Structures are given as C-alpha cells and as structure tokens.
Amino acid sequence: MARTLEWRTRTGVDTDHGRAATVEFDHVSKVYGPVSARARRAGSPPAPGAVNDLSLAIPAGAICVLVGPSGCGKTTSLKMVNRLIEPTSGRILLGGIDAATRELTDLRRGIGYVIQQTGLFPHQTIVENVGTVPRLLGWPAARIKERSEELLGLVGLDPAKYAGRFPSQLSGGERQRVGVARALAADPPIMLMDEPFGAVDPIVRERLQDEFLRLQEDIAKTILFVTHDIDEAIKMGDLVAVFQQGGRVAQFGTPTELLASPASDFVARFVGADRGLKRLSLSRVRDISLQPAVIGRLGEPAGEARRRALADPLPYLLLVDGLERPVGWLRDIEIDGDGVLTEAMAIPMSPLLSPETTLKDALSMMLDADVHTGIVVDRTGRVSGLVTTESIGGFLRETAVGATPAPEQDAP
User: Fold this and answer.
1) DSSP class of residue 124?
2) How many angstroms separate the CA atoms of 299 and 386, rounded?
3) Is 145 a domain residue?
4) Residue at 148 is within a domain
5) In which order are the strands placed within the sheet that holds 373-377?
6) Domain check: are 312 and 382 in the same one?
7) What is the signed CA dihedral for 287, 292, 297, 300, rounded to 10 degrees?
8) Given 248, 279, 310, which residue is the final one in a domain?
9) What dihedral angle (degrees, nearest 10) is formed by the CA atoms of 73, 64, 387, 292?
10) What is the pLDDT of residues 155-188, one digit of tens each?
11) Worst-scoring range by mean pLDDT, 65-74, 309-318, 323-332, 397-406?
C-alpha cells in the first residue's frame, strides 16, 4: 500500500474521540428518471452518470479514493453516503447500520464533508466556521472555542493569527485547511472529501496532500475521497475504486494492485503507460534507509569540520545552525582550515524533503534542482539524513528484483 496504516476494526457511528467506522455499499444503484418494469427485467443499464450495482467494503480508518472520468458516478456515490442523494436501490451501511434508517440530521452531523470550494460562511469568522457543527450539537461555548482552536493548530493555522479573520482574508489553500478543520470539529467517524484540493495551484495542492496524510496518521478517520486525477488517487488512497462510464467500478484494490495488474484495458489506459514510474508514488522517503549527513555547525572551528568532510565519501559537508536546521553545503576541499564556519561560506542547499514526501516527488525535486541529493528534515526542520537519486533507484531495483543499490554519487 501507499503507506502503513493501522486499520480500526471497531464499528458504530458516533462522535467519541478517535472512532472510525466501516463503510459498505451493498448493491447500490442510482437511476435518474423513471425506469420501467420491463427495462428492469431486461437488465437495461441506468442513465449516464448514474451508479450501477455498486458493492464496496471500506475498512474503518482507511482512505478510499473514488476516481474516474467525468460523469462516471463517483460524486453521486459519495453524496449517497450522507444522503444528499438518495439511492434508487441497495443499502449503504455505516458501521454496520443502514444509513437509510438514520435520522437525516443526526446522520449528517456524524459525517464530515469537505468540498472543492470549502463552502465557508463568508459572514462568520474562521473560528465560528470551524465550530459550526459543535454549535448545532449544543456544545458549551468554551468547549467549541477550545476545539476550534485546537483544530486550527492541527491543520497548521495559528489560532492567534487566524481565528478572528473572515474567509475572504485567506488564501485558497488556507480556506481549504479551514474546511478540513470544520469537517473534523465534531470528531466524525467518517469523512467525505469531494475534489478537496482541486481548486488550488499545484504547489499548494501537493503541500495540502502531504499535510493531510500526516494528519490522517493522528486522526485515522474512514475517508471517501473523490478525484479525477489518478496520480492523486495513487498518492492518497489506501484503496482505490476506478469508475468507468455507466456507473460501474472497473477495479477496486490497493494502488499497488492497480499498477501491477490492471483488470482491463480501460484501467490500464486510465492508470497510464508510466505505471513503473508511478510506483514511486506508493513509497515515501521514510520507507528507505537515509544516508547519514556529515554536518558542520555555524561557529565551529573550520579545521575540525574540514577533517570530517574529507573522511567521508560525499565531498560535501552540510552546514547547520544551532538547532541542526540546514543552512547550505560546503565543499570539503574549499573549507579553509582556519577560522570558523559561517553562513557566507555555504553554497545553495538541495531540496528539503519530509519523511512523508513520496519518492516520486523527491526524485522530481532533485532533478528539477539538478542535484543528486535531497536533505530530509523532521517537523521541526532538523536534519534527519540524506536521500540520493541512486538510493531511490536502488530502492526500486531492490523492491522489484532484490538487487543491491549502486554506490552513491559524489555530489549533492
């Protein structure tokens, strides 16, 4: 799978902290317009854009991505979960309970919903937007404020800076984070996300994807995620359902299964001819062994740093500050033996990578920067180690045929 995830086996739809719920589509169909008894007996297909006999079982705590071309029924399927659209036939079970038997308002308050344009209330402050569902549930004001500020911090928005602002004062990416925080406010066991990152530019989109995956490690919700982008589906999904025209699922499985064994020509064409390269999207920097970085600290004697650098195969020393955050590279033979290390001595850094960065993104960033080495940092910005183009290539060879990775390059 794209990442290791402890899938919850607990059931029951409630709002207790940390709960997740299974989601099951049991022969669900949605037909628009009247369907005659004769047509049903003849097995005539439903109208375009409808859903046809959908059966999927999604474990608690998993991200299931619904992907496919426009009009294939993926958004219709999503909206049937919270009954924004009612199924024509079949059942949708949430934590083993038929959604059709639930009181509608209660059902929707127990499901987080994030859409592309966020749907924030423009006349309410950010903290008021986040607290919408808890307020409807009658939570005390102090608890709503505490929960809203907690979630703003969780999605990377400083409450002191953002709580009193209005949506119009935020960027698209910031509004999308608020939308995620609002969906999580009452701690729902299930979240529905309809093209949540589609309205932001590619750079912000990539950052939001990475941050949401980190967030999911903590919240472990059951998430149905709609996208038309197969790369996003492979990156985000523990499970992927590929829809085709007519509202049918062409293949349902892990990203690895889709890439390794497409079930049909349609799936193979939709996934793309670069399936081998897409494998890099299934692994992250944290999945490979990092090369230790030989570091020098600002202000330390240059002679000692030079000796360490010359003793290492990589002919560069990584200069860091007092908190071990990277400042730049120093070429070993160019380090003066006298004086101390200063920022002025450094040459530009390699790309900074997080443990959650996919290997595909890491390789792309290094190639774009015309370097062989990326610097891996933790959440505080502290250096964790190095990733090289050769180590990524070695990882691919090792996972494919068990070959030993080639030696590292001699430049960052």
Assistant:
1) S
2) 23
3) no
4) no
5) 352-353, 373-377, 383-388
6) yes
7) 170
8) 279
9) 170
10) 889 999 999 999 999 988 888 889 899 998 888 9
11) 397-406
Number of domains present in the structure of the chain: 2
Q: Mark whether 220 and 266 lie in a shared domain.
A: yes
CA distance linking residue 389 with residue 412, whole number of Å: 10
On whether both 335 and 317 belong to a single domain, the answer is yes
pLDDT at 68: 93
Burial 312-341 (b: 16+ CB within 10 A, else e): eebbbbbbbeeebebbbbbebeebeeeebb
Domain with residue 381: its CATH number is 3.10.580.10
User: What is the rounded CA–CA span in Å between residue 252 and residue 241?
Assistant: 4
Q: Residue 183 has which token pair? A: 């969906």
Same domain for 329 and 274: no
The alpha-carbon radius of gyration of the chain (Å, integer) is 25
- Looking at the fold, whether 252 and 275 belong to one and the same domain comes out as yes
Question: How far apart, in whole angstroms, are the C-alpha atoms of residue 346 and residue 295?
Answer: 12
Ramachandran region, residue 138 (left: φ > 0; alpha: ψ -120 to 50; beta: rest): left
The answer on 200 and 215 residing in a single domain is yes
Average pLDDT (232-255) is: 93
Residues 212 and 249 in one domain: yes
360 in the same domain as 304: yes
Which residues have C-beta within 8 Å of that of residue 308, sequence separation ≥ 6? 294, 296, 317
* pLDDT bracket for residue 373 (50, 70, 90): very high
The strand pair at 190-194 and 111-115 is best described as parallel
H-helix or E-strand spanning residue 308: helix 302-310
Domain containing 58 equals 23-110+188-279
Answer with the one of 236, 262, 279 that is the final residue of a domain: 279
The overall pTM is greater than 0.90: no
- Most distant CA pair in the chain: distance in Å? 92
pLDDT tens readout for residues 73-124: 999 999 999 999 999 999 999 999 999 999 999 999 889 999 877 688 999 9
